[in-house]
What does this fold into?
Amino acid sequence: MSTSMGWALIGLCAVVTAAIKGAGPFALGGRDLPGWFSRVITFMAPALLAALVCTATLADGDKLAVGADTAGVAVAGVLLWRGASVIVGVAVAAVITAVLRAV
It folds into this structure.
């Protein structure tokens, strides 16, 4: 793929994304969403983040695998669950992953 084709694809993706984001307010016409729907929407971002973390942690090409990165994320998850800061969690995950890959 050429560079100009790549930039054209990025531009097209930006236009499609803007159209999709604009379709919601246009379709609702200024009406408020029902309360139950607003509560569901608040859970969508954490669910998407969890799905991305699981996929990035367990994916190895086209199959699922448990490896060094899985152990690093698991230990960081336990640390964050126990109240550690995000910086500590990321640093510990990086160190554990690097040590396991080196071994």
In short: The chain has a mean pLDDT of 89.
